[in-house]
Amino acid sequence: MAQSRQRFGVAPPQAIHHELRNAENSAAYLLEKLRKMKENNPQLHILDVGAGSATISVAFAKLVPAGKVTATDVNKEIFPRAQAVAETAGVKNIDFKQADGYKLPFADETFDITHCHQVLAHLKAPWDVLHEMIRVTKPGGLVAAREGDVGTECFWPELPGLVKYHDFIVGFMKIAGGSPTAGRQLLSWALKAGVERGQITASYGTWCYSSPDDKQAWAKALIERVHSGRLRTTGLESGLVTESDLEEMGKAWEEWRERDDASLGMMHGEILIQK
User: Fold this and answer.
1) pTM above threshold 0.85
2) 57, 91, 140, 181: most buried, per Cβ within 10 A?
């Protein structure tokens, strides 16, 4: 996956690989529609749900300089980081608001485009969040969602520690109430949210990590996660992994990032809902 060339200082461990994301590498399926909508209305108002560090939100803001982006996240602790990302990029047409995707604090028909990326996969009732996203979108507007499908993840070399890590992530997502097959379920979730099939355009995209920079960033983030934080703690407490498993995973990622023949890929489901 081609990384953003922008640098925002030192990211917290959980944000390292999130901040590789931008509109071009993570929302390409939306950009043609967005640009056409901007031709008719330069003052588009975009909502980004679960924006995290807001690298995608900031990219949207650059695309609609006469418009506005509202970036939300349930965790307000991420906002100083998101604001730093915006300031470093010189973006001012963006604001940040704490919000729960299940109950968005906005009136009906507020936004021209409502977007989320890698959010629904972690939720117990993702169709309810899609329903909320549709509610706050104007008639004629777009709802866009892209979710990874961890079940499709492939990597080389198939080091035993990486196989263990993959199985660990699948198990972790399940016990946390999420879905490791979110990408392939997006269309069904939209239908469950009450959307008619004719309103939905479905597609698939990919992530690929194979360049030295991409591998370094990806591996650094995952090594940090197996050595500290919620993933490690939950894994140990639930019995999904042992200390020796985590040690093996960290060493496997260290080996993977240094090998010239190493790569990793994953499919992502994408939907556009025309309201």
Assistant:
1) yes
2) 57
